[in-house]
């Protein structure tokens, strides 16, 4: 497919996306922004025959009704890990390809899990509140905390995120127990 043919391919943007994503789609495709339409039903009736792809965010997705309104739809792409807002049954029925971003948040979630473990074990948030409330002046030093290193970390589900957490916990000298 040549560059001009790609540009002519219509992509429906159902709801507002991050501006740089819309800009990128605008450069590469002919975009149809449903979220800007005064009358979505009329908008779809006018443009449906040109729309071959749909782009959505994880919180909005694509419904069966919207898929039914797009007879030429070939692909649905969501910039999310989850697919719970995309009608997968309808996509399967129509042989529509569904694409997501399955690994985009793995590192972020694993990093946050480690931060939260450190916060709980080292009492970081609790001791911060203690100091800010002035309690250390009247009640003395905050209780001692425990270290993360050397602990046994239990992980339920050793998929992408669980594995990423396990690697980080191992770097802290933790042993890993998991159920998957």
TrEMBL record:
<dbReference type="Pfam" id="PF00389">
    <property type="entry name" value="2-Hacid_dh"/>
</dbReference>
<dbReference type="GO" id="GO:0030267">
    <property type="term" value="F:glyoxylate reductase (NADPH) activity"/>
</dbReference>
<protein>
    <recommendedName>
        <fullName>D-isomer specific 2-hydroxyacid dehydrogenase catalytic domain-containing protein</fullName>
    </recommendedName>
</protein>
<dbReference type="GO" id="GO:0005829">
    <property type="term" value="C:cytosol"/>
</dbReference>
<dbReference type="InterPro" id="IPR050223">
    <property type="entry name" value="D-isomer_2-hydroxyacid_DH"/>
</dbReference>
<dbReference type="GO" id="GO:0016618">
    <property type="term" value="F:hydroxypyruvate reductase [NAD(P)H] activity"/>
</dbReference>
<keyword id="KW-0560">Oxidoreductase</keyword>
<feature type="domain" description="D-isomer specific 2-hydroxyacid dehydrogenase catalytic">
    <location>
        <begin position="11"/>
        <end position="125"/>
    </location>
</feature>
<dbReference type="GO" id="GO:0051287">
    <property type="term" value="F:NAD binding"/>
</dbReference>
<keyword id="KW-0520">NAD</keyword>
<dbReference type="InterPro" id="IPR036291">
    <property type="entry name" value="NAD(P)-bd_dom_sf"/>
</dbReference>
<dbReference type="InterPro" id="IPR006139">
    <property type="entry name" value="D-isomer_2_OHA_DH_cat_dom"/>
</dbReference>
């Amino acid at each position: 497919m040549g560059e001009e043919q790609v540009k002519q391919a219509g992509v429906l943007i159902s709801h507002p996306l991050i501006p740089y994503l819309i800009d990128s789609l605008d450069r590469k495709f002919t975009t149809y922004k449903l979220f800007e339409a005064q009358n979505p039903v009329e908008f779809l009736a006018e443009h449906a025959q040109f729309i071959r792809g749909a782009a959505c965010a994880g919180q909005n997705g694509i419904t069966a009704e919207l898929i039914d309104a797009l007879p030429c739809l070939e692909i649905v792409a969501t910039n999310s890990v989850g697919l719970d807002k995309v009608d997968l049954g309808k996509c399967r029925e129509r042989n529509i390809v569904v694409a997501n971003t399955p690994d985009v948040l793995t590192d972020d979630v694993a990093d946050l899990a480690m931060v939260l473990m450190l916060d709980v074990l080292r009492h970081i948030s609790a001791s911060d509140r203690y100091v800010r409330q002035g309690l250390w002046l009247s009640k003395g030093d905050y209780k001692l905390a425990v270290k993360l290193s050397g602990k046994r970390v239990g992980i339920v589900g050793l998929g992408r995120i669980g594995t990423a957490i396990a690697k980080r916990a191992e770097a802290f000298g933790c042993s890993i127990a998991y159920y998957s």
